[in-house]
Design goal:
The chain is α+β, with helices and mostly antiparallel strands. Helix content is 34%, strand content 39%. It is built from 3 helices and 6 strands; from the N terminus they run H-H-E-E-E-E-H-E-E. Strands 1, 2, 3, 4, 5 and 6 form a 6-stranded antiparallel β-sheet that branches. Strand 1 and strand 2 form a beta hairpin. It is globular and about 55 Å long. The protein starts with a helix and ends with a strand.
Length: 132
Amino acid sequence: MLAYLPWAMIPCAILFIVFYFFAKKENANLEELMTKVSEEAKYQIKKELYLPSKEGKNLYTTKGYVADITDNGSKAKAFIIFHNTPRNEFYSQTAKLSSEELKEKGIQAGKFVPCIMKLDEEYQIYGFKKLA
């Protein structure tokens, strides 16, 4: 049994390394996005409240700050920044949508957009669901 233990640790080590580099990349992306956010906008992001939504259990509405948008013809990504109040830290989420939706909803970099979030009450972690 002990002879197989080192071989079993190899997949675990690989997964740990992959998660480490993924988290490091996400952190670098957030730092880059935060350079585009003014102090006034940071203050406003912190003030946004999470209010219960009528759409379902553990769903809340709030406004997120659109830090950046990449539009590739028919598809677009909006990088939205929120504030996790219990942890007192900013975090970003990516909303994938079509270019038509981008124009219809008037989503622009530097503006706040209404969002629906999922709140895990036990850990108080906010997770992006969709744009409202």
